[in-house]
Amino acid sequence: MEINDKKQVEKDELTGDPILTGHEYDDIKELDNRLPKWWVWLFIITIIYAVVYLFLFDVIKVAPHQQDEYNKEMAVAQPVVPATAGPADSTLAPLTDPSSLEAGKVIWDKSCVVCHLAGGQGLVGPNLTDTFAIHGCRYADVINIITVGAPEKGMISWKTQLSADQIRQVSSFVMTLMGTNPPNPKAPQGDPCK
Length: 194
Description:
Cytochrome Bc1 Complex, Chain D, domain 2; 2 domains; two-stranded antiparallel sheet
């Protein structure tokens, strides 16, 4: 122990650091150590970063928040997908020229037959030849379901594998299947088309 002019200060035997009085628990005495310089500087840097971040994002608003960045990316991506089901798409008409329908059939044979069979009568996927639909009967609804998919039903999104024109072509081909009578059709699913 050292004796100062006014008070006694107990020091740690190993480090020589002063021991705080009144801070002893389970025979462990708390030392009054200085924090490491790297820790103090890291703490100061995080405070400076927080102030700059707050200033840029919330005071002068020159940097976009994550939601703003997301909205901006979605606005850029929206024109890539030409049609989604909605009121604005109700005027969209199927392609009827033979070259588009033939291109749609090629895509159908390559990508859709596995789940819907060659005639559209349905296997894993629903029957596309009857007058019932799970996700809507309009041409825009067909484009939408091919574009965004229905993962809960096993339908994948084709927007990354097919171009917008290819989606329109295969959707137009699907519309030609409605009302046909292939062998062994799957039972109707969904709501009746009106």
